[in-house]
């Protein structure tokens, strides 16, 4: 007799794990285009305080949102990395403190977040990596807020 290999769980998704405002966060890998060092940003008049501004990314202007500031944390200077994401047909830069890992989470084990725990709708779920809590960010919600869509 031959053995049958189990099929990988189709509800498992890969997430990029990063730090933002002393919190461990994640976003789906399918929205991540690249990670680049933070560069000088041009402030956008009328944008929320947590939007750093526009940066030039190889000739394209990309708006960058500071996720730490969105969480209410104060950042010293513009240090960090920009996670460049494609969401809602737009390119969005998200300034994070550092990229840490790629992890797989079973969608059935993600816990929904509501109310004040959703940080203005930016956090959609909570996942656990061992004993560590990981906040799953809704990049579409962040883009709608930052890009005023």
What does this structure look like?
The chain is mostly beta strands and 149 residues long. It has one domain (14-147): CheA-289, Domain 4 (OB fold (Dihydrolipoamide Acetyltransferase, E2P)), CATH 2.40.50.180. It has 2 helices and 11 strands, in the order E-E-E-E-E-H-E-E-E-E-E-E-H. It has helices at 67-70, 139-147, and strands spanning 12-20, 23-28, 32-37, 51-57, 60-66, 81-87, 90-96, 98-106, 111-112, 123-129, 132-137. A 6-stranded mixed beta sheet has the order 8-1-2-11-10-9. The chain has a 5-stranded mixed beta sheet with strand order 3-6-7-5-4. A hairpin with a 2-residue loop joins strand 1 (12-20) and strand 2. It is globular and about 40 Å long. The mean pLDDT is 87.
What would the keywords be for this entry?
OB fold (Dihydrolipoamide Acetyltransferase, E2P), globular, mainly beta, five-stranded mixed sheet, 149 residues
């Amino acid at each position: 007799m031959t053995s049958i290999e189990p099929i990988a769980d189709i509800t498992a998704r890969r997430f990029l794990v990063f730090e933002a405002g002393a919190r461990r966060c994640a976003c789906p890998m399918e929205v991540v285009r690249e990670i680049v060092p933070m560069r000088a940003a041009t402030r956008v008049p009328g944008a929320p305080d947590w939007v750093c501004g526009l940066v030039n990314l190889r000739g394209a202007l990309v708006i960058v949102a500071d996720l730490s500031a969105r969480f209410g944390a104060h950042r010293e200077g513009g240090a960090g990395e920009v996670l460049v994401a494609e969401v809602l047909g737009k390119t969005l830069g998200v300034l994070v403190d550092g990229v840490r890992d790629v992890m797989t989470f079973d969608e059935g084990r993600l816990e929904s977040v509501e109310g004040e725990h959703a940080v203005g709708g930016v956090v959609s779920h909570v996942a656990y990596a061992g004993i560590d809590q990981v906040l799953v960010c809704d990049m579409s919600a962040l883009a709608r807020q930052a890009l005023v869509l």
